[in-house]
Design goal:
The protein is of the alpha/beta class. Helix content is about 40%, strand content about 10%. It folds into 3 domains: about 120 residues, Chitobiase, domain 2, CATH 3.30.379; about 325 residues, TIM Barrel; about 140 residues, Alpha-glucuronidase, C-terminal domain (Alpha-d-glucuronidase, C-terminal Domain, Alpha-Beta Complex). The structure holds 4-O-methyl-beta-D-glucopyranuronic acid.
Amino acid sequence: MLRLVCVFLLLLSQVAVAQNPFAGDDGYRLWLKYDEITDKQQRQSYVKSLTAIDIRSQSDTANVIQQELTDAWQGLLKTAPHFSSKADLIITKGDQLSKNEQSIQTLLSTIGNEGFVIHSLNGKTYIAANSDIGLLYGTFRFLRLLQTEQSIKQLSISESPKVQLRMLNHWDDLDRHTERGYAGQSIFDWHKLPDYKEQRYYDYARANASIGINGIVPNNVNANSLILTPHYLQKVKALADIFRPYGIKVYLSLKFSSPQQIGGLSTSDPLDKNVQQWWKDKTAEIYKIIPDFGGYLVKANSEGQPGPGDYGRTHAEGANMLAKALQPFGGNVLWRAFVYSHDAKAERSLQAYNEFVPLDGKFEPNVSVQVKNGPIDFQPREAFSALFGATPQTSLAMEFQITQEYLGFSTHLAYLGTMYKEALDADTHVKGEGSTVAKVVDGSLYNIPLSAMAGVANIGMDRNWTGHIFGQSNWYVYGRLAWDHDLTAAEIAEEWARMTLSNDDKAVANIVDIMMSSREHVVNYMTPLGLHHLMDTGHHYGPGPWVGDLGRDDWNPTYYHRADEQGIGLDRTASGTNGVAQYAPYWQKRFSDPATTPTELLLWFHHLDWDYKMPSGDTLWNELAKHYDAGVQGVAEMQAQWLALESQIEANQFNQVKMALAIQLKEAQWWRDACMLYFQTFSKRPFPAGFAAPEHSLETYRSYQFPYAPGRG
Ligand code: GCW
């Protein structure tokens, strides 16, 4: 009887677990889950060929490697690893190779300081590198083979990063508010630092190292000068100490007026000797505390931030002052090109180019000018920024946004791998065909030694780090592309899905399918055919195409869509703002003619009649409606695909995504209906057949207010 009761209770508890929507993985472990490999044969074959490990290096990074392998073995293989010099997995630097291992040494000659090789030799597997951090990267690469259950026989892998500085930029304030953050408070708890070292910092570092990120900026580009005071520098040091073994350097965003704000000077003029000395002293002070400090990230003369322009000086003069202070220590300046000024008469998309092209050749070699992928501001789709390729003597860093400020915050599933690739693969044609943005960024097009990429982080205190399980994939794909921009968005999506959600081939195919289509759905239901900046004011949550009364013209959505009775779109051809003139002749020509402008950028470059005949044969008005509708349908399809995956995904992850998709579908409809009703007031045309009647009136949509939307600037 007792046994029966026990069996009954056991069954009951299992039912309870099965029904608990929050059972299982909550997403905290990211793509480093290390759950037991389910294919028993595969697991046994790994165990057999990986009985002992020899880590020949001794360092803090080597300790990290040992810990990571221990965790992975215990999780994936359900066995404790054995560390011994008689091993079949050997982790070694070049100078620790013996005579009969010299063929590995040859492989190391081409991979640089951060690269690695994974090579099978004499029945053993070698992870070899020129540095400890190369060994850590190689270890994570090897673990990925196990996590994704691939063969580890006859390995011959050789990798090195294409871009030197692979950075995450956190727009996190010292009070833990995150500007444009949708995943909770900042992970950096400045109040409790330096003494309180959260486990989260270590897990964050592991995740970053596993995808090759080697620099982080923990504070907002809208910077607070306090970060450079001794009190805060001790806190920064604590972070730098934690991150160092993971190959991650800490950089800081600075406020250009710091000499006045915290230094007691009467000016912050970059040509003033006292100001220059102040920065030299401050920089030396920082390096005394953090010997491997990375350098400075600067937002100057942009959106109200102070900068060299306040004194009639150029961005180059401002950047070079800091660059010179950093040079004795090997640090770098990342100087942002996201500038648009009050007095400039030029249309906003032209301003960064106008400001920086004349400065080409004037920057110190340790300055990289950090350019957003498009000329406006992280829209769901933009043309590539014309700055890429236009400054042959200047290092240009790519700045991507990982956090989804304009792509639905953290409730919309939008895999950004396709968007990043679109920007990186864009062919500028500045030196003929094949002059891709990626080649500008990695320095190969003009032979520029310093190369950098930055991603504005989507990370916060939410248990799953990014607010949406699929938000993790954007952190992941950003890092992977910064390491190797030749990878495809699809292959990275697959890696991530296998490690994060399921290793079942069919499930993976469906997940990758969802991911690969997702960003285009967002483009369609928010800003199709080249429309942009239609988001509601300030917080950027939801549609606000009607907003036209803000202090500056170029903060208004009406400035960007220019809808009137005749048509819609911003004329950036010679008859309009002449933005096309900033591009190479190949694109000037193509962008000048609607017939040769890529359809997805049509209204970015042209103001066209509502009855303009689209390649499909339909009118622009009807086509616009169809795109909005396709976006909504796309979300409904993603939802159906996801729901069908229920049995393959852990309940907690499954339910988080399910709930977010339901929100996304509602909001996609909201976007479609609000925008189409508004544009209809100009087009005065009926919705095409099959277009569902909007749920509410335009007045209702216009009345919505969201004073507490997250992430406000
Ligand atoms: O996208 C805009 C954001 C601001 C941000 C700015 C920038 C950090 O709305 O919140 O400020 O760009 O990139 O500097």
